[in-house]
Amino acid sequence: MRIAIVGGTGYVGFCTGLGFASKRHDVVLIDLNAKKLAGVREGRCPVYEPGAAEILRKVLDQGNLTTATIIPEADIILLAVGTPSLPDGGINVTQIKKVSETIGSTIKTWNTSPVIVVKSTVVPGTTETVVKPIVESTSGKHAGTDFGLVMNPEFLREGVALKDFLNPDRIVIGEYDKRSGDLVATLYKDFPGTLMRTSLAAAEMIKYANNAFLATKISFINEIGNLCKRLGIDIDEVAKGIALDKRIAPHFLQSGVGYGGSCFPKDVAALASLAKQNGYEPKLLNEVMALNKRQRRLLLDRLGPMKGKRVAVLGLAFKPNTDDVRESPAIDIIGDLVNQGASVVAYDPQAMITMKQVFPNILYAQTAKEALQTADACVVLTDWNEFKELTIEDFTQMHGTQIIEGRRILKPEINADGLCW
Questions:
Q1: How do the residues of the chain divide into helix, strand and coil, expressed in percent and rounded to 5?
Q2: How many CB atoms lie within 10 A of CB 247?
Q3: Longest dimension (CA), the chain
């Protein structure tokens, strides 16, 4: 099939495009940024994702991936644009509306019946009450007859997105009409995983409920971890024990400084905002968000006053194997340290360029060992594998002895103070 991906140089659009192109579909990445598109054609990835560069070179050589600034005629037009948070926690659908208008005006003259697939994370009702009427009004056509409509949420984890795309646990297809659902189901016929067909709104809600549940699991284990810390109990032993229950999976049971990233914080807030808009007070979701913020505060409290001190911050990305710092614990912690008057020297294997956009005036080291030199204190916020290799000798380069782990990754002999252990 020919698939045009609007927002094709963004994280979701690009990884989705690579995945479908690797399956020999004809993929066109759409973006208004000609410079980014030129980079893609030259084999440069617009986002950081392990394994992406190799797949990009392969699909370019095979001719399965091209780029364009306008939407070409295609079997499927896939929306993968951003839905950033509003101040009240709701989502901003400005880009969704703009792209829907563009799609409508584009397909107005087509003699075919393309299927519009929404990949962007949108609250329940958005595909049918925002995308559908805009496309209909600008095209003069009707959903279900002249064009199809599907909501197909993504479940990609940064750092392993391509693996997740090509080996999904499940594929959710929310369909406005059966023909549209059939076409998208055919698109995924060579993929493993359970295929679920449902309504547009249910597909939208599945994505939010999925992320809210995982965020809840993280806040829960952090709550238990905080108590275990006070009781002198190893939280990892507790997590291991409860994960042996077949009803409880072991994933997301690692206590620490809390979740971050582009999905969990935004999606939990959006779901809570949606609940309030509909007259329901989401007490559990509110507590999940509050507990997550508290973990960062607890780490700062453990660190104590740092005015005039030099603090090494190891790990800036919200998780390893990505350069994404959105909602990263490091942002809150560095911000507080700077406000206190501390001198921060930060290091991350991938995320220093992106963090410089947030904190251009702090110090950035070239290695973890360099960051530790003459530091009065150290905090570890991301569980990069290279931090596992740090030795006691590396930490003796510090002036102080305070080492606080927000992720349990350092060697035991370093005797760091764990946030929850």
A1: 45, 15, 40
A2: 5
A3: 72
Pairing of strands 170-175, 148-151: antiparallel
Indicate which residue of 228, 263, 378, 420 is catalytic.
263
Beta carbons of 2 and 74 less than 8 angstroms apart: yes
The domains located in the chain, with CATH, are 2-198 (3.40.50.720), 235-421 (3.40.50.720)
Residue 201, pLDDT score: 99
- The Cα 147–Cα 139 span in angstroms is 10
In 3D, which of 215, 227, 403 has the Cα closest to residue 327?
215
Q: How much is the pLDDT for 222? A: 99
Q: Which among 113, 130, 108 has a CA at the least distance from the CA of 74?
A: 113
- Cβ(387)–Cβ(405) below 8 Å: no
- 409 to each of 20, 174, 389, 403, 414, how far by Cα in Å? 36, 40, 9, 12, 11
Residue with tokens 């926690």: 89
Our answer to whether residue 45 is catalytic in this structure is no
Helix (H) or strand (E) holding 363: strand 363-364
Pairing type for strands 65-68 and 76-79 reads unpaired
Average pLDDT of adjacent 10-residue blocks, the chain of 421 residues: 98 98 98 96 96 98 98 98 97 98 98 98 99 99 98 97 97 98 97 98 99 98 98 98 95 97 97 98 99 98 97 98 97 99 99 98 98 98 98 97 97 95 94
| The model's pTM | 0.95
Q: Which residue do the tokens 């549209």 mark?
A: 180
> Which tokens go with 363?
């110090």
Distances (CA, A) of 154 to 78, 165, 247: 12, 8, 25
Q: How many CB atoms lie within 10 A of CB 34?
A: 10
Give the three-class secondary structure for 241: helix
CA–CA distance, 199 with 205 (Å, rounded to integer)? 10
Q: Please tell me the predicted confidence (pLDDT) of residue 52.
A: 97
| N-term to C-term CA, the chain | 52
For residue 158, the model assigns a pLDDT of 94
